[in-house]
Amino acid sequence: MSRRRLAAWLLCALMALAPACADAEQEASPRYIRTLLFGDVYPFIDLSKLMDIVEWMREEGQPYALMVMPIYDNASSPAMARFCDVLRYAQSLGAAIVLRAPLSRAPETEGGQRMERLALSFEHYAGYGVYPLALAVPENDLRDQFGRELLAASRTLLTLPREDAAPITEGSMAYAQASGEHQIIAAVHPGAATTARATALYLNVDAPLSELKNALDLEKRSVTPLASLRALSHAVDIGDHHLRYAPDTGLIYDGAPDALRYQPMEDDQTERPRDDTKAMAERLEPSGRGALFFALGACALLLLLIVLLRRQIRRLFLRPSTHKGGDGA
Amino acid sequence: MSLWDALSLFVVISFWLLSGLSVTLTICGLLYQYRNRRTAEGARLHSPPFVSVLVPAHNESAVVCRTAEALLGLDYPADRYEIIVINDNSTDDTAKVLRRVQARHPDRRMTVVSTDATVGGKGRSNALNIGLSVSRGTVLAVYSADSTPEPRALSALVRHLMADPKLGAVAGKIKIRNRNASLLAKFESIEVISNQCLNQAGCWQLLGLCALRGTNFAIRRRVVEQIGGWDLKSPSGDMEIGFQVARMGNRIKYVPHAVAWESAPERLGDRVSRRAGRMADDMGTLACGFKYVFDASAGRMRVDALYHILVYGLKLLALLCADVLILLSALGAITLSFGGLFALHCALTGGLFVVCLIAALAGEINEFTPQNVVLIALMPFTSLQLFIVAAIKAISSTLLRSIKKPGRKPRRAERSAD
User: Fold this and answer.
1) Looking at the complex, does the CB of residue B91 fall below 8 Å from at least one CB of chain A?
2) Which of the two residues, A108 and B314, has the higher pLDDT score?
3) How many A×B Cβ pairs under 8 Å?
4) Considering only CA atoms, which of B90, B126, B222, B239 is closest in space to residue B167?
5) In whole angstroms, how far apart are CA A192 and each of A93, A140, A187, A315?
6) Residue A28 near chain B (CB below 8 Å)
7) pLDDT tens, residue by residue, A68-77
8) Rounded Cα–Cα distance for residues A13 and A5 (Å)
9) Pairing of strands A256-258, B148-149
10) Strand ranges (E), A209-295
């Protein structure tokens, strides 16, 4: 074999091996997953705003998740029904629902009943056809027994952004506790430093839509494309309920499949009389405006009288030329 | 709805009810003062009635001389009034001081009635009844031993009383002499001014009612005699007299031209005791007068009783509940479903309270100052809280008195000669 032929043969062999080498390199390098997480979603937010966000994300065609707050009481209220209607709509369009675990400092969760509370809340949402695929929890809360119970309950856990803005790393406690089966996703605020491979960009639904759009525009320029939580498999076993989700098989809740299709709620749910405390708070809300107008009106009237009286006092008592020797009454 | 939510709603409704009342009364009070200054004071009386000025004094040697001299300096015709000082079982030099004043003015009608522990020492009402028994005026004027009336005070009171036969009594204005001596006295001065603007001028303008405050008032003798004198069960008897005057179909008018000066306690303990004592008397009277609210034959007294019950009862309950709710919320012990609304309404009503007080000061000379405005802004956290303390003390002392020693005298604030 001539040298030229040998060189040509080696080159061909190298070219044939190149894709395999590239694959191997890709396997060795970390895979970064990033998703959008809209947080602080609860029944009493502006539902039209939430609907705008859902429609906007549908137009953008971007995957995202909605982190809903745990609801323990008044789950049958019309506000909850309307809220879950929007969530079901978002779910049918591909949004993933994440349920936030009760906070340790919330007074209603004292006495080690947080898991029971969480199970109750999960049941309420599932009762409305809203299926949380994952749980969200502050990273610190994973330290104790509750954290271990959460890890046992859900395959996918989102750790909430830390208030001290400290970067969440792969070596942090949440990762240390999780087994290889778990999917730990660190939710981070826009611009926050992190070395975690799986992150969720945390956006507050209360923020103006323009601000949310700016955050998404910035995210779209990132080298890491946005991924959907619905592209991963999830499992939740909480209370007496079992949820399994896989991209290919779909959702199975308590052994029964659910197509996650949207069905508008029945009209009678919106017409139901609202006699709960929150409804009363909503009814009382306009009273604040009325009270403010009354206070402003009263202040204006009193101010006018103050001016009149001060002018009278100045005229009668404080001008030497017109002093009438009043008794100061 | 939880108990705390219900309480917060009660507080908000009560605060707005009281604020609405305060704003209305302040506006009426200011209008009355404005109109009162614009109109002429009226012609002098051609035949002034004989007036007996009653001054109950119990261990008042430090201040009684100044009061007696001020009463002797009134511009009311000297032969048409007498001064009767009831030296009520005093153990200090009150009698000696009064004798010296008598010696300085031998030509004036000044009588000192000294009582011992058997006849006297049973409270202000008893002393006034003793004074009434030795007086001969058709009009009775009452001044406390610490009040120094301005020279024109008595003539202004009598002129207004005689001008309207429907009037049973007239009440003058009280000002705080030592208002610049301490912060407490300053607060007291502001409170007295605002109270007079609301409860005296405002009530008179709006409801034709006015409260008697224990000093600087004149009342027809026949009214007192019809009532049967001052009520011995009530140590001060002012509100009781006011009720009875209203019950008889007579009115009590506020006369801001008649000014008397008195001292405010400069120590916190004294102030609380004095206020608590006054409130205990008023509460006792209100408890007795409560039945008249539902009695159609009680006439104007119904409105009077209802107004005072509203002011005392509702104000105390609402303030107490608000304090408890705010404290527990701040400690994180409770969560209010209407927390935001509760805070908003409390802030609005608190703001209105402050504006009303500032407006009340606007009608006074040398009181509408930046320093006073700052002090008023602090009053929801100072005077209103003191009101709660005094009210609780008044209630507890009333209960204790009714259980242990009926007729026990409340502790009196120490007097100083300034």
Assistant:
1) no
2) B314
3) 92
4) B222
5) 29, 18, 10, 66
6) no
7) 999 888 888 8
8) 12
9) unpaired
10) 234-238, 241-246, 250-253, 256-258
Residue in chain B closest to A301 (alpha carbons) equals B27
Asked if A86 contacts A123 with a C-beta cutoff of 8 angstroms, the reply is: no
Distance CA B31, CA B36 (A): 8
* Of A107, A288, A302, Cβ closest to residue B27: A302
Contact between residue A119 and residue A84 where contact means Cβ atoms under 8 Å apart: no
pLDDT at position B329, please?
85
A166 near B CB under 8 A: no
- B237-267 per-position pLDDT tens digit: 667 777 778 778 888 899 988 999 988 888 8
Collapsed DSSP state (helix, strand, coil) of residue A245? strand
What pLDDT shows up at residue A245? 92
Does residue B269 belong to the interface with chain A, where contact is any CB pair within 8 Å?
no
Instruction: Please report residues of A whose CB lies closer than 8 A to that of B355.
Output: 298-299, 302
Check pLDDT > 70 for residue A22.
no
- Phi, psi (deg, nearest 5) at residue A27: -65, -40
Interface probe for B, chosen from A105, A274, A277, A309 (most Cβ of B below 10 Å), is A309
Q: Which of A35, A40, A43, A131 is nearest to A90 (CA)?
A: A131
Q: Does A300 touch chain B (CB under 8 A)?
A: no
The order of strands in the sheet holding B139-142 is B110-115, B81-88, B51-57, B139-142, B217-220, B167-176, B251-262, B148-149
> Does the global pTM surpass 0.95?
no
Flag whether residue B5 sits within 8 Å of chain A, measured between CB atoms: yes
Place of tokens 């105390």: B316
| Terminal Cα distance for chain A, rounded | 127
Residue of chain B whose Cα is closest to the Cα of A106: B332
Cα-Cα end-to-end distance for chain B:
55
Nearest to A284 among B338, B349, B365 (CB): B338
Q: Any chain B CB within 8 A of the CB of A308?
A: yes
How would DSSP label each residue in B177-194? Answer: TTTTT-HHHHHHHHHHHH
Region B382-406 average pLDDT: 80
Instruction: State the SS3 of A52-81.
Output: HHHHHHHHHCCCCEEEECCCCCCCCCHHHH
Confidence of residue B364 (pLDDT cuts 50, 70, 90): confident
A247: tokens are: 């991209």
Q: Hey, are the CB atoms on A305 and B259 less than 8 Å from each other?
A: no
Distance CA B101, CA A252 (A): 103
User: A308, B34: Cβ pair inside 8 Å?
Assistant: yes
